Structures are given as structure tokens and as C-alpha cells.
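Folds vary. Our protein:
___
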Amino acid sequence: MSYREMNIQEIENALQTSMELGLREDEAKNRQTKHGFNELEEGDKQSALLLFFAQFKDFMVIVLLAATLISGLLGEYIDAIAIIAIIFINGILGFYQERRAEKSLDALKQMAAPQVQVIRDGKSVKVPSREVVVGDILHFSSGDRIGADMRIVKAVSLEIEESALTGESVPAVKRDDALAFPSASIGDEENMAFMGTMVTRGSGIGIVTAIGMDTAMGKIADMLQSAEAVKTPLQRRLEQLGKILIITALFLTMLVVAVGVLQGNDLYTMFLAGVSLAVAAIPEGLPAIVTVALSLGVQRMIKQKSIVRKLPAVETLGCASVICSDKTGTMTQNKMTVTHLWGSGKTWSVTGTGYDPVGRFSDSQKDIDPAREKTLQQLLTFGMLCNNAELLTKNEQFVLNGDPTDGALLVAAMKADLSREKLLRKYSIVKEFPFDSTRKMMSVVVRDESGKQFVVTKGAPDVLLSHCPSILWQEKNQLLNKDLKQEVQGAVDRLAAQALRTIAVGYKQIGPNTMLMHESEAEKELTFIGLHGIIDPPRPEVKDAVKECREAGIKTVMITGDHLTTAKAIAKQLGILKPKDKVLDGKSLSEMSVNELEDVVEKVSVFARVSPEHKLKIVKALQNKGHVVAMTGDGVNDAPAIKSADIGISMGITGTDVAKEASSLILLDDNFATIKSAIKEGRNIYENIRKFIRYLLASNVGEILVMLFAMLFALPLPLIPIQILWVNLVTDGLPAMALGLDKPEGDVMKRKPRNPKEGVFARGLGWKIISRGFLIGASTLIAFMIVYKSNPQNLQYAQTIAFATLVLAQLIHVFDCRSEQSIFSRNPFGNPYLVWAVISSLAAVLVVIYFPPLQDIFHTVPIVPRDWLLVAGMAAIPTFLLAGSLLASKTK
């Protein structure tokens, strides 16, 4: 039998404790020695030094280290130092990100109460929460944070804020009697209190049933530690690219060396040419360019109110195929709001969002003045009087102080121009009977200016109705007969069907000198006035964001701890739940295996009444089906799923520190719509990365092929090693980086998400690299042959022509890389950074050709003006030949 099913005596016996005396101090020490402290444990931590060195195990890093060694052997110490610096910076970034992730658990620890009130040896004492043991008797009241999991044995108007664990919008009403059912989700355990949650109303006494890692919070901490951080698609693609590059580069360079030696060239010369090509073939600047592109994307995203904690997350979000979003506070405002009222057979709607007291009232046909509707005015007035909430202003925003339900009624009345101050000048509060979870009502006795006294009561409709023999109907008090009761019940059902919580209001007039000493006297013989329909409304902008995500091929899934009816209603309003979509609750999820869930998970749009374990299970099932999953959330209960998702997104305003630390992306405005901007940015960043991979590799293929073709045709070397390295330097740097600043193409949010298994060379990129590389190499070699054949004695001039042709061909090709279509599909001057980068690279080439001190180093000679026509013509062939053929095929 679980503790929630036991009575007090059974719990005392099971835990060997006493409600009156608590535990003896020596017994508490013994239990502490045996079971440990009430704190969240940390997993085995890797030392900072080992964590730092672990950053250099990546395959691309090993490739870069090999390139560093080769550069050093060639005497290119500047290149070697630059590569080492890049590796070191990347290592520091990776180390910093992993150390930040470890803070997730530290933030979770801070949610435990620093001190709690316990009974020890019959006395009430305060002890640090870490010294609490199972069996301790804890006292707690409004404002306290619960220090351990416990069975509530006394509850006085007790409500506890559990949204961090359950996702529910409103505080949970607690009770102290045993529950009849054997199992339940956290949200249904009405006689239990959980570590880290906050008491918002009333007071209580509890017997500690679990501490530390055995608590609900501890189980989340354990999942957080054991959750595996998955590699991002970008990391997987770069790793794949690194392997392809090293294998291809080694094969081709060995081929060049072997063919060159067989053709009679000097072995040492061919070895130097081979290692130079190896350095050129491996774009050592690629990780740096990727990092810069991601960093610039991050800067743009900050302006759009989102902070990226892990750089690769930007690109990952760009290829997300499913967004799993928490409901409360993410898709909704986390501000309970009255949207409908009912009374005297009429239903009124109220506009306005959140706690801003501005809105319009309307009936089914037109806007109305609430002051002219007597029943409505009375319903709003009494809702404001029977109320303890306050509306404050903070940083030019309205902030609620008090219960969310009271706040909803207060704001609704203020929208009708009612004022608490003015009402309290007209009515004085004589006595209050606070809300109690047993009676489910709250009442106040008020006296008006003429001395008349009234009892005003609000509460659950079914309870209040049983205390009302009459009803305010057509502005007159009438007997609440069977037909009118059905009218009221029908109104409750209609509001409930819209996922609205209903609060009923009633009143009665009493004698001017009547003194009511007990709520049972006050809350009888009431007149029923009407109903408030309350909901945590959706954010207005979320519906459009969900629609745009769908157009981009991204499915939005709602995952919430709230009730099924509420979740379905909000999901329908936002366009998440379509007629053929499925809905699953926590009970169904518990009964399903992971394989069974995988069979249906793609058809489900709403998961309701779920626990943290369920969220993790859903994310894993979607990942197993091949989806790139983004998980949004704000509570502690979201943290494990946030960490395990391909990208975790937390809320900056309402999000707990635990959720933020576990996430990759933080939304500063808690706005689901901000994710849309992040997706667009992520997609563009990946496309830009593809652009400079295409550019770098096509250029490098051209460099290798020009040497290979020369060897095959028994020609002298068209380029010497130092020229190859200089080409690599001036073309791989600024132009490639400028591509990372390219603006997105117009249809970027109309495309389907990329398949997470898609390789780097998918969508024809491999063919483009090979075909452009082949033409760049061929045109360079042709230019070399034309000049060399005309004057075989002047090899140095022919090599200078080849050198200039190769660089210019690559700098023209960079403009072609801006689009998946052709160079003609975009304005070539649309990226000013690229224009200036190309000009800078051209200047660097002209300097080594025409500046005498550098001519001896690079073995170049000045090119006469007429030969620049040959250089420019041959350099333009690779880009314009293929672009022209593509244009011709489209015209046909």
C-alpha cells in the first residue's frame, strides 16, 4: 500500500514516527547516517583537465593536427600556428559548453528549501533542509518551499504551486485524507507534497516519505544526469566530411606523386608538391568559418529575443521536423483570464489578454455596456468583492499578487470600469470565510452605505448550486426549479466544453445587525447569480507561428501535464490538433512500450496529463522514428526531455534555472513565435555552410586536378608548392567567410526540413563540387598549356598564368555558390561582404605577381595586359559554361 492510501496511524507505524513528538534527535541522526542527507547527488564528474583534453578526440581535429604537422614540415610556420590556434579555440569552446551543462544539477539543488520547520523530541525547531530524514514531521505555510516529499496529514485551505513538476496552470488544492486509488500521476496525488514546490495558500503538516534522490525532484535529477546529449546534425555532417576529405586527399596526392615520379620528375620535388596539395585539399579553416557563421547567426538571434547557449543548436533547429512544446506559459500566457460570463440565460464574451485590465464585453450579436446589464454588473461586482487578489504595476506591466483565479475575476471586473477602491467605499467587508478545499467556496459579509448586509459567495458551481434555493433570473429572484437548474448545468457544460474552468457566484441579504460566526450559517439560502468562465488563454501570435511551422514541414506537438479537455481545446484553437490527429494521456502512455509508442507517435498531436518520464519517452520515440526533435519547456519537469532532445528550448522569463541550464536555446520573451525566427536563421546558416563547403571543395578539387592532369600529360608542374599554399590562403579565407554572411533565399521557410540522415553532399552538391572542380582544373591547365607551348623556355611565366587563372576561376565561382540554382538567379552584388572579400583576394594575388620582393619568393613574373584576357576568359569558363547550360535546359 502506498503512503497516499494510508491513514495517519498506518503512516506513523510504517515510518516509526509520532505526529505529536516527531523523531528523537538521536534517531534522526541514525537515519541520516544510514540513508544520507536530503540532497541531490551528483554523478561522477570528469576532471576539468580530462574534459579539456577530450575536446581533441574529434576526427576533424585529428585531421587538422595532421595538416599542422605537414605545414610545419614545409616550413609554413604561420599556417601551423594558425591551425593550432583554431584547434585550441574550438577546444575551449567545447570545454566551456560542457562545464555549463554540469550546472543543470546545481540549479536543481537550489530549489530545495534552505530551512524547514520540523518536530524533534516534541519541540518545533528549524533545521537545514539537507538534514531532514524520512519520518520527520514538517510544518509549512504560505510562502514556504517544500523541503522533501511528504504525505500531507493536515491541510488548512492548502494550495501548492506544482507547475514546475506537473505543468498545470493553477496551484493544486491539497487534502489530508487517504486516497482510494492505488496509483496516480503527480498531478493527481492530492494528499502528497513534493520537494521544491511552493505553498501559495494555507498551511499544512506532513510526514516525510522520501528524501534526496528518492523524491520526485531527485528522479528528475537522475534522468538529467543519465540523459545522453545527442550529436547535432551539423556535427555528424562535419565528421563525415572530415573522413571523406582525408581519404580523398591522401589518395589523390599519392596518385599525383606516383604519376609524377613515373613521368621522370624528381622525387623530392614531387613529394613537396604532394604534401602541398594535401594541405590545400584539407580546408583547415572550415571549423573556424563554421564557428564564425554560427556566432554571427547567434548575434542576429539575440536581436530577435533568443539566446543560443550552444552554437551548433542554431543549425540543428533549422532542420527540426518536430517541435514538442509545453502548453502552460509557452503556448499560453500562464495568466488565468475570464473569457466568458453567464447569467440569467445570457452568455457574454470578454476580450483582452493577460492581466491588462482592458477589454470589451459583447453578447452573441454586438458589443455591450456592462453597466446596462444588471445581472452582468452584479456578477462582476460580487466577483471583485469576494476576492483577495491585487493588481500591481511593475516595469510598466501589470503583475498579479494573489491567487490566479481571484486575479481573473478581479481583472474582468476592472475591464467593466469597476474599481476595488470605489467598491470598498460603498461596501465594507465585515467578515471573511476563506476558501477551503473541503467546502470549495469562499464567502465575505459586506455592508453597504445604507447599512444593509449581504453575504457574497463564490465557488465550484455544483457545490454552490446545492446551497441556492433561488436564482437571479430576468433581473428578479426566482425559485431555482428543475428547469432552471438544467439551464445552469447546461451553461456549465457549454463552458467546460471550451476547456473553461467555471466559478459560480451567489449572494443573499441578511439583517443589518446579524452576526454570522460560521460559514455554514453564511453559505445557505443563497441566490445564484451566474458563472465566470476562466482559462489560461493562448498567446495571440502562436497560432500564426504554428501555421508557418507547418508550411515549413515542421509538426508542432503539445505535451502538457494539464487535463486532457483543456489541452485539446487549446490545441484546437492554435491549429495544432486536426480532426484525424490522435490524443494520448499519461495513463495510456504508461501502458505502452516504447515500440508501441513508436507505432503511433507520428499521428499524435497532443499528449496530456504526462509525467517527466513520459516526456522523455515521447522525445525518444520521435527520435527513433528519424525526427530531429526540438523540445520547449519552462519547468523542472521539462529538463530531462530538454536535454535529451536534439535541441532544447527554455523560457527566459518563466523558465526555471534548471530548464535554462539544460537547454540549448533560451527564448527571452517566452514567445513560441520566436522559434519561427530561430528556425529561419538556422536553415539559412546551414545553407551558408553548404555554400562555403561547396566553394572550398570545388576549389580544392580544381587545385588537385590541375596537378594530376599535368602529370598524366607529361607536362611540367603548372604550380609550385608555395603557389599552391598562397592560392589556398587567399581563396579559402575571406571569400568563404563572406558566404557565411549571405542573406536567406526567399523560399527558405517553404521547404521541407532536411532529412537528419542527409549527407553533406546531398541534393546534388557532390556533383556540383566535382563538375566545377573539374572545369576549374581543366581551364587552368589549358591556360598553362597555351602559354607554355608558345614559349617552352619561359616555364615561370606559364606557371604565373596558371596561378592567376586558378585564383580568378575560384573567385568567380564563389558568386555561383550563393544559390542552389545558378549565378544568374541572384544579384551578384547582393552580398557586399563577398564583393569586398573578392577584391581583397585579387589584391593579394596582384601583389605577389607585380611586387618585386615577393616575385622571388613566389616564383612569379609580371603578366602583360593582353594575357589577362586569356586568364579572365579561361577563369570564367567553369562558372558560365555550366550556368548557361542550366539556363538553356530550363528554357526548353
Observations:
- The chain has 33 helices and 28 strands.
- Residues 107-113 have pLDDT under 50 and may be disordered.
